[in-house]
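Here is the promised in-class demo. Please do not try to memorize the tokens; focus on the logic of going from shape to residues.
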């Protein structure tokens, strides 16, 4: 295994009977970075993470996580990873400090350092005032901070986060990501799954998954540059007729309405695409302003998943 990577996999596959949940995934996750899995529900994100954690045996393929073969050395690996799920794996009938104490027992933290470590986590994750509060009475944001405090209590060099912000408000999500960047600055590697485009754009590198396969992989900048499409924004007071006119055009890959604006993906091979779109709209009697715009990660996602879906 290359020491520059915290995770490497080759042909990683998981089948459940006749259904293939993860289909020959190759991964290289650099150390001290945030690597994202972006994809809809059922795309294989959680199943892949469970295999990499040693919780699920691959049907085919190999993986090494922090130098450990998976799932062959799962017990040793458990001491070096943190795992946080979207359901906040807390004991709701225990208070904050009791939850952290229980996790300390699970990871066999030495008695002489355990108390100091718990206090440090309470302070870092802004939980001092909630230390005696039962987990089931906490807000979504507080539960999220407690779950992350528990997942990092033993200072793991690798952290798996499975859709960790699906049940919290936007401000809590923003604060959560600031905490993740602080962990990375300290040397932690993070693999995070999400279906939020704005979160995926925060990752140093990401993979887009669709039906158990990686359909795109790279830094956000690389994914934008690799798009085989031009993105046009159409602003009009008649988005419905404009969309109808564009949907019938050859080489239009996608049309998405955003209020009075349309976001249009046109095959990159089309020459003078903005003028062609303007002409088509004018022919349909639609007044509009058409201009090229910088692609978004949602554009990359739509193009990658639509292309995948078109395959036989």
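The designed amino acids, position by position:
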């Amino acid at each position: 295994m290359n020491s520059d990577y915290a995770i490497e996999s080759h042909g990683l596959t998981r089948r459940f009977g006749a259904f293939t949940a993860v289909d020959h995934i190759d991964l290289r996750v650099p150390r001290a970075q945030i690597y994202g899995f972006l994809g809809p529900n059922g795309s294989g994100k959680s199943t892949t993470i469970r295999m990499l954690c040693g919780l699920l045996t691959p049907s085919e393929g190999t993986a090494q996580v922090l130098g450990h073969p998976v799932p062959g050395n799962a017990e040793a690996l458990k001491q070096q990873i943190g795992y946080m799920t979207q359901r906040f794996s807390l004991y709701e009938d225990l208070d904050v400090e009791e939850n952290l104490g229980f996790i300390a027992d699970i990871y066999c933290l030495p008695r002489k350092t355990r108390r100091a470590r718990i206090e440090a986590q309470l302070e870092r994750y802004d939980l001092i005032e909630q230390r005696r509060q039962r987990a089931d009475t906490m807000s979504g944001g507080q539960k999220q901070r407690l779950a992350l405090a528990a997942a990092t209590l033993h200072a793991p060099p690798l952290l798996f986060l499975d859709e960790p912000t699906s049940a919290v408000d936007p401000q809590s999500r923003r604060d959560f990501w600031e905490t993740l960047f602080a962990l990375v600055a300290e040397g932690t590697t993070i693999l995070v799954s999400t279906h939020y485009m704005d979160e995926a754009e925060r990752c140093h590198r990401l993979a887009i998954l669709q039906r158990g396969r990686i359909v795109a992989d790279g830094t956000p900048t690389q994914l934008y540059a690799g798009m085989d499409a031009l993105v046009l924004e159409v602003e009009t007071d008649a988005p419905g007729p404009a969309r109808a006119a564009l949907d019938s055009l050859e080489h239009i890959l996608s049309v998405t309405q955003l209020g009075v604006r349309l976001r249009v993906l046109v095959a990159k091979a089309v020459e003078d695409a903005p003028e062609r779109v303007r002409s088509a709209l004018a022919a349909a009697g639609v007044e509009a302003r058409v201009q090229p715009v910088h692609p978004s990660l949602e554009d990359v996602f739509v193009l990658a998943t639509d292309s995948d879906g078109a395959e036989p």
